[in-house]
Amino acid sequence: MAKTVLVTGASAGIGKATAILLAQNGYNVYGAARRTEKMYDLRNYGIKPIALDITSEESIVNCVQQITNEAGTIDILVNNAGFGSSGAVEDLSIDDARYQLEVNLFGAMRLTQLVLPKMRANK
Question: Cβ(51)–Cβ(10) under 8 Å?
């Protein structure tokens, strides 16, 4: 039976390439991103696009719940969603810095908290 993988940030770049590579190697892949319309082409590889706003608790819970309902479990999590800001620290607004931490740290952490117990139970 194929292992189920959730790849976040699958709408572009490394996340998209990772999702495609995993699907080509027989994994059951869910590609997650805020803009599902950017992932329509992933269906050609058998990847299931799923909406995920990594800064929203409701969105994270719904994403994990949908995959669990459809596939039974999430065996592998690729926490790829994220972004970087550049420039001088005095030019970066605190709101932008907080949002970056929400995406890159707290969102990834919360998603891991939700899937890790089942992963451990499944060894």
Answer: no
Cα atoms in the Cβ-side hemisphere of radius 13 Å centred on 6: 30
Q: Which amino acid is at 37?
A: E
**What secondary structure letter does DSSP report for 77?**
E
- Under a CB-based contact definition with an 8 Å cutoff, are residues 32 and 6 in contact? yes
The pLDDT tens digits of the residues spanning 15-34 come to 999 999 999 999 999 999 99
CA neighbours within 13 Å on the CB side: how many for 70?
17
d(CA 44, CA 40): 8
Domain annotation for the chain: domains and CATH numbers:
4-122 (3.40.50.720)
Query: Of the candidates 65, 83, 73, 25, which has an alpha carbon nearest to the alpha carbon of residue 50?
Result: 65
